[in-house]
Structure formats: structure tokens, C-alpha cells
């Protein structure tokens, strides 16, 4: 358990994201040439969890990192890493938007060949980008932030995050 509450919270969210990416990859692996079966319970639950896992909460996580953590990282001497991670967030946005919109239609109506092909393409690209991004933050962002925080700043950041993350949506 990390002594920093904010770093522990972000780490837990990274773990949840990695688990969701694994579910997505498993679904892509099961349906290569054909659309997912409407009776497939795992596919149905993935589509149900998609808006929660990759929608509003992930946006709140990205926003918090960009507004609160990357400037702190720059103060600690690594402005280039914050800039790179911000670019990666931006690069994932169109993929996330496509996945969420195609996924919402598929949850209501099922996939057809065209929507499955769009979903597959976006999901395949996103899984790779998101996994690499999370790994980078786990190795190079959270340890530096944790090192830089005293108990008071940690509590302050946690309060900001807990207060904001239910309200941010784009
Ligand atoms: Fe990030
Ligand atoms: Fe993150």
C-alpha cells in the first residue's frame, strides 16, 4: 500500500483500466472474423461496463493528471514527460470517443459487420496505447509524485480529486 493516498488511488484506477483492457483484448481474440454473438454474456457485460471504464471516470483521471500532476512533475525537473503523457491522452481521445459511441449502439442493437469492424479497429489500437501509457505512469510518474508529496499536499490533492472526479465530463 502506497503511503500516498492520491498515488494509491491513481494506481488502483490504473489496475482497473488494465483489467478492462484485458477483457477487451479477450473479446477481440474470440471474435476475429465474425461479430460477437448477442448471447455472449462476457461481451454483453463488457459493453455494459464500457461507459464506466473508459468514459467519464477515465476523462476525470486524465484531467487530474494534466492539471495537478504534470505541473508538479515539471517542478520536479521532468517537463518533457508531462508533455508526452498529455499528447498520449489527446491521441487516445478519438479512439475512446469512437469506442464509446459504437459500443453504445451495439449494446442496444448488437453488432453488425460494419460496427464490429469499427469497434475492433479502435479497440485494438486503444488497448496498445492505453497499456503502454499506464505502464509509463506507473514507472515514471507516480514514484516521482509520491516522493515529492508531504502529508498535507497529499491530502490536498486527494480532496481535489475526490471532489472533482464525480463532476468532470466532456
Ligand atoms: Fe495518464
Ligand atoms: Fe494515469
* % residues in beta strands: under 5%
Low-confidence sequence ranges: 166-170
Might you state the CATH topology name? Four Helix Bundle (Hemerythrin (Met), subunit A)
Sketch the major β-sheet. none
**Total individual domains:** 1
Computed over alpha carbons, the radius of gyration is 17 Å
What's the CATH architecture? Answer: Up-down Bundle
Distinctive features:
170 residues; Four Helix Bundle (Hemerythrin (Met), subunit A); mainly alpha; 83% helix; disordered C terminus; binds fe (ii) ion; elongated; 0% strand
Notes on the protein architecture:
The chain has 170 residues and is mainly α. The longest helix has 36 residues. It is elongated. It starts with a helix and ends in a 6-residue tail after the last helix. The C terminus is likely disordered. Bound molecules: fe (ii) ion (2 copies). The site of one fe (ii) ion has 5 residues, from helix 1 and helix 3.
Short précis:
It contains six helices and no strands. It has helices at 5-30, 41-54, 56-75, 79-109, 113-148, 151-164.
Provide the fold topology:
Layout: H1 5-30, H2 41-54, H3 56-75, H4 79-109, H5 113-148, H6 151-164
The structure holds fe (ii) ion (2 copies).
Residues 10, 14, 61, 65, 137 line the site of one fe (ii) ion.
